UniProtKB/TrEMBL annotation:
Residue span, DUF218 domain: 34-138
Upper classification of the organism: Bacteria, Pseudomonadati, Pseudomonadota, Alphaproteobacteria, Sphingomonadales
Ranges in coiled-coil conformation: none
The organism of origin for this protein: Sphingomonas kaistensis
InterPro entries, per database record: Cell_Envelope_Assoc, DUF218
Protein name (record): YdcF family protein
CDD domains: YdcF-like
Pfam families, A to Z: DUF218
Length: 176
């Protein structure tokens, strides 16, 4: 009986991982939201957020989890000409967050302060499911558009992210 249950759970876990791996998030269609929240930690995320701002698809952007020593001028040098004006007027650098959960908490405080009710969440495709789960939990009355930066994650990275996602879901379920 225990062997059958263990085999069933292992099969369920493997099928869940396969489903997780083949259903990574995609970039969003052009959709206007009040805010863009970019989670740091992956290539192309900030660039994606700036492209959204340049197209006028959001009023303001939060870069959550930014290193406290990073300035708008540093970002402008990295992102290229013409970005400093947007960075100065419409981008906030949040340096309180250290993980996905605290990204959502930081974004919630930022959204409440501005009275925003809709956001576009920008992160990597492999990270989106967990990030969207955290944001939906912290911002239940907010419209969240998932806008993933496409990557080519390794099998090991997918495996780690799948396990982080399962642990976070279990912790939420157990009210931890």
């Amino acid at each position: 009986m225990i062997l059958r249950l263990t085999a069933f759970l292992a099969l369920l876990y493997a099928l869940g991982f396969a489903l997780f791996s083949v259903t990574l998030a995609k970039p969003a269609e052009a959709t206007r939201t009040e805010a863009v929240v970019v989670l740091t930690g992956g290539k192309g995320r900030i660039e994606r957020g700036m492209a959204i701002m340049k197209r006028g698809e959001a009023k303001r952007m939060l870069i959550s989890g930014a290193d406290p020593s990073v300035t708008r001028e540093d970002l402008a040098r990295r992102l290229g000409r013409g970005t400093l004006k947007t960075l100065r007027c419409c981008v906030d650098l949040g340096s309180e967050a250290v993980d996905t959960r605290s990204n959502a908490e930081e974004a919630r405080r930022w959204m409440i302060k501005r009275g925003y009710r809709s956001l576009r969440l920008v992160t990597s495709d492999y990270h989106m499911r967990r990030a969207a789960y955290e944001f939906a939990s912290d911002l239940p009355d907010t419209t969240i558009i998932e806008d993933a930066v496409q990557t080519r994650p390794s099998l090991l990275l997918l495996f780690k992210e799948y396990n982080f996602y399962l642990v976070r879901r279990a912790a939420f379920w157990l009210d931890m």
